Amino acid sequence: MTTMSDTDTEPETDVEADTDELARRAESAALRLANADEATRNEALRAIADEIREREAEILEANAVDVEEAEAMLADGEYTQALVDRLKLDETKIEEIASMVESVAEQDDPLGETLAARELDDGLELYRVAVPIGVVATVFESRPDALVQIAALALKSGNAVVLKGGSEASESNRALHEAIVDATADLPDGWAAHIEAHEEVDRLLELDDRVDLVMPRGSSEFVSYVQEHTQIPVLGHTEGVCHVYVDEAADLEMAANVAFDAKVQYPAVCNAVETLLVHESVADAFLPGLVERYESAGVELRGDERTREVVDVAPAADDDWDAEYGDLELSIKVVDDVYDAVEHVNEHGSKHTESILTEDAEAAETFMTGVDAASVFHNASTRFADGYRYGLGAEVGISTGKIHARGPVGLAGLTTYKYYLEGDGHLVASYSGEDAIPFTHRELDDAEWTPGSLSTH
């Protein structure tokens, strides 16, 4: 756990005091949950899945209240259609949520894995072993299924979790959280906490003595707010400005299908394409057909001057190249070559996901090694940037940073490690001075840490 920061303050209000107590209980639960064996954690996950199925009607009733209020806000112009769509649950979605929890239970245990082993001397062995992070706070918007997904991953990885969903999903989140808590009554009290008020979030972000990691999911402005108001490490991304580059050596039929999928299949998510880059030599042959297809799907298109010489679309403004639309909107730019595409991506991208469509391996390598992003694809839709599709079981979010975890963050991203040293009365003094014993520093391949035992290697 982290240590008390000089910036921590005593609670001044009941809300602050309650949040402090919630965080204290979460910290206590995390220490005990770290010692829960895999069977216990998996049994609890399956119980959550069963409880969610049993409470389907109750959960959908709560969700209907949220959706009705959100649609009224949409009519008033205060919410977007994309937000309302992310909010909705139905019978199929409930089953998907329950199945997701079960799939997390089926994943390999991320805890206790020996990540490295080294003999320092005869009978003195060092092991680096995966352990939980501790207390993870998550703050997310609109998607109620995210609450269950995050809680399931936290439980599987032995972490306590504090969950804060958006007010637009308050009824849904309460119903889902109650199902989780009731299903896991045998686990340490406070392992899955739920907060709702902004004041609670602000206080939680101050508690770097209790909370080990914050994972925000939501808009760029929302994630930036969290990053600016805490000293706790933050794992997340502020934007999903993703690009698809159609190279001069692209299979244009395949490229059209991929570019269409990357925008239209689900435009509200962070891995949908926001800017299409097209090599100048194929713009005339490629753009007219694709633009017609986009327009038939209701996509609002903008283009630079060279694009507008080929197709009739609205002019793109400078800020369009930095926009995360999250909707059926797309900007198009004609570029000179792959190097021009790389330069544009690195200037305007958000380090999330980028894709090149080409049959030229050299061009693919130039693009894939040249752009700065957590995920870079060749001849595939940006929509593949997802923990489930990567085989991670589920994800708590996508990180565009480069420290600790990058890209879709699954179970491994919710662990850290400890060094365990097994010895037999070894003294540092023996390895110092004129008659110092030399260290062997021999790697122990495939060795697994077993408490109180030395490797047989």
Automatic annotation (TrEMBL):
<comment type="function">
    <text>Catalyzes the NADPH-dependent reduction of L-glutamate 5-phosphate into L-glutamate 5-semialdehyde and phosphate. The product spontaneously undergoes cyclization to form 1-pyrroline-5-carboxylate.</text>
</comment>
<dbReference type="InterPro" id="IPR015590">
    <property type="entry name" value="Aldehyde_DH_dom"/>
</dbReference>
<keyword id="KW-0521">NADP</keyword>
<dbReference type="GO" id="GO:0005737">
    <property type="term" value="C:cytoplasm"/>
</dbReference>
<dbReference type="InterPro" id="IPR016162">
    <property type="entry name" value="Ald_DH_N"/>
</dbReference>
<dbReference type="InterPro" id="IPR000965">
    <property type="entry name" value="GPR_dom"/>
</dbReference>
<comment type="similarity">
    <text>Belongs to the gamma-glutamyl phosphate reductase family.</text>
</comment>
<dbReference type="InterPro" id="IPR016161">
    <property type="entry name" value="Ald_DH/histidinol_DH"/>
</dbReference>
<feature type="domain" description="Aldehyde dehydrogenase">
    <location>
        <begin position="16"/>
        <end position="302"/>
    </location>
</feature>
<keyword id="KW-0028">Amino-acid biosynthesis</keyword>
<dbReference type="InterPro" id="IPR016163">
    <property type="entry name" value="Ald_DH_C"/>
</dbReference>
<dbReference type="GO" id="GO:0004350">
    <property type="term" value="F:glutamate-5-semialdehyde dehydrogenase activity"/>
</dbReference>
<feature type="region of interest" description="Disordered">
    <location>
        <begin position="1"/>
        <end position="21"/>
    </location>
</feature>
<dbReference type="InterPro" id="IPR012134">
    <property type="entry name" value="Glu-5-SA_DH"/>
</dbReference>
<protein>
    <recommendedName>
        <fullName>Gamma-glutamyl phosphate reductase</fullName>
        <ecNumber>1.2.1.41</ecNumber>
    </recommendedName>
</protein>
<keyword id="KW-0963">Cytoplasm</keyword>
<keyword id="KW-0560">Oxidoreductase</keyword>
<comment type="pathway">
    <text>Amino-acid biosynthesis; L-proline biosynthesis; L-glutamate 5-semialdehyde from L-glutamate: step 2/2.</text>
</comment>
<feature type="compositionally biased region" description="Acidic residues">
    <location>
        <begin position="7"/>
        <end position="20"/>
    </location>
</feature>
<dbReference type="GO" id="GO:0055129">
    <property type="term" value="P:L-proline biosynthetic process"/>
</dbReference>
<dbReference type="Pfam" id="PF00171">
    <property type="entry name" value="Aldedh"/>
</dbReference>
<keyword id="KW-0641">Proline biosynthesis</keyword>
